[in-house]
Structure formats: structure tokens, C-alpha cells
Design goal:
There is one protein chain. The chain has about 475 residues and is of the alpha/beta class. Helices cover about 45% and strands about 10% of the residues. It folds into 3 domains: about 5-75, Arc Repressor Mutant, subunit A (Orthogonal Bundle); about 100-105 and about 390-475, Aspartate Aminotransferase, domain 1, CATH 3.90.1150.10; about 110-350, Aspartate Aminotransferase, domain 2 (3-Layer(aba) Sandwich). The longest helix has about 40 residues, at about 335-375. It is globular. The two termini are about 30 Å apart. The structure holds pyridoxal-5'-phosphate. Pyridoxal-5'-phosphate (PLP) binds next to helix 8.
Length: about 475
């Protein structure tokens, strides 16, 4: 076993409160070696035969039985034959590929690809932006222009944009940056229970360092109540962090109202806008927002680059110390190619927002109407009214979403479900849990639409969903818990 697997095992053991014994190690070691050799995970039967360890013993030793064993040694769950009882297969004579997972990530659009290719061909700006040479100056100009373009989208100043290594980093910088600035006296942070893990885990980490934390509950549609925010603000509150829109259920939070409350109370307001940027208008200065994160790969830019708006009145401690790049908030030689690509992506997204959002909203509404016609007892998770135009989270009664996802995958339709069979995790989705979805009754699929989505694509998906659904109902697969990124 390599060091990565060993670290993974110890991390999983710690997070699941499992004290590793010789028996655990024997099971994990055998599973790991079996997978290396056979490229599929072992079944309970193999453990019994080779190690004399029964299914009951494995289920007693690991929180989710064989699922855990696989997870802990990094065996993809879909490599096993057992977890999704049946992957339904249906005949399609008009096969096509339909990507409906734009909330997870987007392709790199042509205009952005051109910027990347131009940069990586070495034609421009390969120098170090901090160097005084001509190539360095050119690189610096590129970074400068990227600041201007992103700032223009948000109607803020270029120096108020900090480029980061991803959206997760932007969220971490905002939360930990504010908190570390109050390191001596600590303080109180407010967030909500449907935030992305990069926010929730950052806040929870600060709690372990002695900060006080309030995690607000959302209502049945996934909304944070602004009055609840107001009620929980205290004298020592140093940050309120509420996302603009949710990545799983698309719910758009009442950001203007929360912004007003924070401004009146003099508390910095952080907004994770990673799903919302370029989908709904967001001007931080008008909305009382002090910090706002964006990620390139959700807006047709490359992965591994993000940005944080930091209001000039807002003091942050940097997480990286070094050459003082990005206004001393993100030291390290800038990823010039990705930064300029992200700026192009942001500019285009912003320019096309109104028309593209209207187009996607119409397609989404068509899709849901047709779905209701064929499967009337589906449920829509989250509000339909205050929702990102390109998101739809649907609960399908009486089926396992993992099997559904894999069935759709087989006919070229790519969506998210996040259940055991699909994403190697059996953790329940904290968002679905927070809005009270009965995950034993419904298997949830997230459909998300984007630039390449057409009505023909949706008609293809709509044609086969009812067939696949009936196959699943016949197979008797029960819903498994979901969890989405
Ligand atoms: C709402 C939200 N916040 C943060 C992130 C993390 O962004 P990144 O993938 O760029 O680290 C995501 C990505 O799924 C997201 O949807």
C-alpha cells in the first residue's frame, strides 16, 4: 500500500471513530491487493474464502460494511458488482450524449480555449509577473487586465479581486482570513446548514480553534430566514457567511435582505457565489457584501482557478505568506494562463447572463412539465420560484438514485445523484437532509443545464426516463441516501 492509501485509511478511521485493529488491517489489505490484481473489488464471499471473515464481521467492523472497505482503500464503488443491485439497461436506437451536470462542472468554451492555447503556446506573457523584464511586464499586464475584467463584472475595483487556486480556496481565505484577523479575541461566526463543505468545514475548523459558531437551519425550500440571521448576530459576531445559491437544489437565498442586516450591524457578509455568478445579477457593493467567491470551472473556464472579491474596507489575514502577490492576500507566482482564461469566461458569462438564463429557464420549465406528465408523483426539491435558472433537483419515488444515474449514464445522459453507487460515498446529503427530504422514499437526481443544452437533448432524456424508471421500479431497488458536490 502506498502512503496515500495509508493516510486515507487513517483519516477515514479517525472521522468514523474507528480504532483500527489487526482484523481491520487484514480486510483492508486484502481488498486493496485484490483490486490491484483484478480491477474489481472483492465480494463478501471472497473475504470469507480467503480470510475466513464473514459478512457479519465486516459489517460490524466498518460503519458501512463493504462500502467503507472500498472507500477506505480508494476502490471505486462502481467497480464492484454488488452495490447497485441492478443497473437497468434499455435499448436506444437514437443514442446521443447529453451532459446535464453543469452544476458539477462545465466544459471549457471555445473563446476561453483560444486564450489558453495562445498563452500556453508561449506567444504572450510567459514571464513572471513580478519580474522587471519585458516578458514579466507582459505577464503583469495580463494579470492586471484579468483583475479589471472580473472587477467590471461585479462593478468593484480591480484591486478588490484576489485570484486563488479554486473556489474552495476563495471560501477558505474569506472565512479563515477574517477569523485569523481576530485571533486574539476570537469571535462568533454565523453560517447555514446547507452551505458547501468548503464553507461549513472551514467554519467548523475555526470552532475547533476556539471561535463560536452558529449554524442556522434552512426552511423546507432551503431558504435562510434573514430575521434568523438578525436574531443571531451578537456583539462579538465577526462574520456571516451565506451562499448566494445552493449547488444541489439551486435555492437562491435572500442576499439583499441579509446584506442589509449585516451592514446595519457592521458585520462582514461573505457570499459563496460559485454557483450563482453569471446566472443571476450580483453586485456586491449594492448588496452589502464584503466578500464573494467565484470559481472558473463553473463558468466554462479551466479548473484550478477561482477569485475572491474582498471589499477594500474589509481586513483579511492571508493564508499563504511569501512574495505578496494579489495584494498580499495570495502569495505565490500567479497562474497567469488560468487567470486570464477565467477572466474571459467571467466576462462572457456576465455579458450573456440575461439571455442565456432566460433560455435555460424555459428549457428547465419545459423539462419539469414533461417529467410531471410521465411520472406525476415526482417531487421538486427546493423552491421553483427562487431558483437558479439551470438547476433542477428531482426526487423520484421508490427508486435508488445511484442505479438510476448509472442507467442514464449507459444511454449517454450525464447527471448527478451522489448516492453510493455513483460517487463512491454513502454519506447522506446534508442539503436534502436539511430540507427534510425523506431519502428512504425518494431517489434524488440533479439535472443541470448549460450552454450546449438543447430541446432535442431534453426530448431524448424525456423519452427514456420513464422507461428506465419503470425498469427500476420493477427491479425493486430502494432509494439510498444521496450526497452531491
Ligand atoms: C457552492 C459551491 N461552493 C464551493 C465550491 C468549490 O469550488 P471549487 O470546485 O472551485 O473548489 C463548489 C463546487 O462544487 C460549489 O458548488
Amino acid at each position: 500500500m502506498n502512503n496515500y492509501i495509508k493516510t486515507l485509511i487513517s483519516r477515514m478511521a479517525i472521522s468514523n471513530n474507528v480504532v483500527l485493529t489487526a482484523e481491520h488491517n487484514a480486510i483492508l489489505d486484502y481488498a486493496y491487493r485484490y483490486y490491484q490484481k483484478n480491477k474489481v473489488g472483492p465480494l463478501y464471499y471472497n473475504f470469507k474464502k480467503q480470510l475466513g471473515i464473514s459478512k457479519t464481521q465486516i459489517n460490524r467492523l466498518f460503519p458501512h460494511g463493504l462500502y467503507s472497505v472500498y472507500n477506505w482503500v480508494d476502490i471505486p464503488l462502481h467497480s464492484a458488482h454488488f452495490p447497485c443491485k441492478s443497473i437497468p439497461t434499455i435499448e436506444v436506437n437514437d443514442y446521443r450524449q447529453v451532459y446535464l451536470d453543469y452544476n458539477a462542472t462545465t466544459f471549457i468554451r471555445e473563446e476561453v480555449k483560444k486564450v489558453l492555447l495562445n498563452y500556453y503556446s508561449g506567444n504572450m506573457g510567459f514571464g513572471n509577473p513580478s519580474s522587471s523584464t519585458e516578458p514579466g511586464r507582459q505577464a503583469w499586464e495580463l494579470i492586471n487586465s484579468a483583475h479589471e475584467q472580473v472587477a467590471q463584472c461585479l462593478q468593484v475595483e480591480p484591486t478588490e479581486i484576489v485570484f486563488t487556486g479554486c473556489g474552495t480556496e476563495a471560501n477558505n481565505l474569506a472565512i479563515k482570513g477574517i477569523a485569523l484577523n481576530h485571533y486574539q479575541e476570537k469571535g462568533h461566526i454565523i453560517t447555514a446548514n446547507t452551505e458547501h463543505s468548503s464553507v461549513l468545514r472551514s467554519v467548523q475548523y475555526m470552532e475547533t480553534l476556539g471561535y463560536e459558531v452558529t449554524i442556522l437551519n434552512v426552511d423546507h425550500d432551503g431558504f435562510v430566514d434573514p430575521d434568523d440571521v438578525a436574531r443571531h448576530i451578537r456583539k462579538n459576531t465577526i462574520l456571516v457567511s451565506i451562499m448566494a445559491a445552493n449547488n444541489e437544489i439551486g435555492t437562491i437565498h435572500p442576499v439583499p435582505e441579509i446584506g442589509k442586516i449585516c451592514k446595519t450591524a457592521g458585520v462582514p457578509f461573505m457570499v459563496d457565489a460559485i454557483q450563482a455568478f453569471g446566472r443571476i445579477p450580483l453586485q456586491p457593493k449594492k448588496l452589502g457584501i464584503s466578500l464573494m467567491s467565484v470559481s472558473s470551472h463553473k463558468i466554462y473556464g479551466p479548473k484550478g482557478v477561482g477569485a475572491l472579491f474582498v471589499d477594500k474596507e474589509c481586513n483579511l489575514a492571508p493564508l499563504l505568506h511569501g512574495g505578496r502577490q494579489e495584494g498580499d492576500l495570495r502569495s505565490g507566482t500567479e497562474n497567469v494562463g488560468h487567470i486570464i482564461a477565467m477572466a474571459t469566461a467571467a466576462r462572457l458569462m456576465n455579458a450573456e447572463m440575461i439571455n442565456e438564463s432566460a433560455r435555460l429557464r424555459e428549457l428547465r420549465n419545459y423539462f419539469i412539465d414533461q417529467l410531471y406528465r410521465n411520472i406525476p408523483d415526482i417531487i421538486v426539491n427546493g423552491s421553483l420560484q427562487h431558483r437558479l435558472p439551470h438547476n433542477l433537483s428531482i426526487g423520484f419515488p421508490r427508486i435508488d438514485s445511484g442505479s438510476f444515474l448509472l442507467g442514464l449514464n449507459k444511454i449517454g445522459v450525464y447527471v448527478s445523484s451522489g448516492s453510493a453507487c455513483s460517487e463512491g460515498s454513502r454519506e447522506t446529503s446534508h442539503v436534502l437532509h436539511a430540507i427534510g427530504v425523506d431519502r428512504h422514499k425518494y431517489g434524488t437526481i440533479r439535472f443541470s443545464f448549460g450552454l450546449q443544452t438543447t430541446k432535442d437533448d431534453l426530448d431524448y432524456v424525456l423519452k427514456y426516463i420513464p422507461v428506465l424508471y419503470q425498469e427500476l421500479i420493477k427491479s425493486g431497488d430502494k432509494p439510498l441516501p444521496d450526497g452531491q458536490d
